[in-house]
Amino acid sequence: MSHTDHPGIVTDIRPSATACALVRKLGTMTLLSEEEVQYLDGLHTNRVSVAKGVDFIEDGQDFAATFIVMSGWVVRYALTQDGKRQILSFALPGDILGLHSNFRRTASYSAAALVDTELAAVEPTRMVEISRQFPVLAAGLSWSTAREFSILGDQALRLGRLTAYERVSHILLELWHRLRLVGETDQHWMDLPMTQNDLADALGLSIVHINRQLRRLRSEGLITIVNDCVRLEDIERLIDVSCFQRDHLTEFRL
């Protein structure tokens, strides 16, 4: 689908590498008009810096705003009655938390910055305006929601049916594909700013199991780890050993 202001004059654009992460993300789904890009940029005027480890959404509390991740990483998590943490998912640049807070004001999870993170805090009614003014952007947000369901479905599969080895391989592939979508990878390299404890809480494993699987993946030549960066050395082999289905995260276009 293309937009034109006048017959024969196409004003669609592909986002540049310097565009905000949300524009880069939605720009993989459809061509964006200058007006649409300007509206998305305008959602980022109220910026909030959240330090590593600080919660900005609390389970059971009303959403203070809809949050767009501009830079950094966020974990969505739940706590058991005895204080054990289960990481539900990771929110990366371009992701939105509380997108549907107009319809459900109370949060069903907590969210914290995994690293120093910059967020855009958006009045929820501005997200509703998108449906009225920009139907293509509204479709893009629906696509984002559908993609979130796929990510949560894959998380359920990881926890319920995959071995420890498969779980670690699977989540590395997921994160690489998601970061690649918004231009946050360097070929097969990606930042992985999390501890083994974070991985354990995401995958329902002990730190001992996480350490063992990472060592196995390194010894098999499937990954390289340097400080907080990971390189996926053989993506096709990782897909084969992890039951990963890349089409769950494949982009599509309107």
Helix fraction, binned, reads 25-40%
| Beta-strand proportion | 15-25%
Mean pLDDT: 91
List unreliable stretches of 5+ residues: 1-12
User: Order of strands across the widest beta sheet?
Assistant: 5-12-7-10
Could you give a quick summary of the protein structure above?
The chain has 254 residues and is α+β, with helices and mostly antiparallel strands.
Structural commentary:
- This protein is of the alpha+beta class.
- It is 39% helix and 24% strand.
- A hairpin with a 5-residue loop joins strand 8 and strand 9 (85-91).
- The termini are close together.
What features would you highlight for this structure?
39% helix, 8 helices, 254 residues, single chain, alpha+beta, four-stranded antiparallel β-sheet
Topology at a glance:
Layout: E1 4-6, E2 9-10, E3 12-13, H1 21-27, E4 32-33, H2 34-42, E5 47-50, E6 55-57, E7 66-71, E8 74-79, E9 85-91, E10 96-97, E11 110-113, E12 117-122, H3 124-133, H4 135-161, H5 164-181, E13 185-186, E14 189-191, H6 196-203, H7 207-219, E15 223-226, E16 229-232, H8 235-242
Antiparallel strand pairs: 1-2, 3-4, 5-12, 6-11, 7-10, 7-12, 8-9, 8-11, 13-14, 14-16, 15-16
Helix pairs in contact: 3-4, 4-5, 5-7, 5-8, 6-7
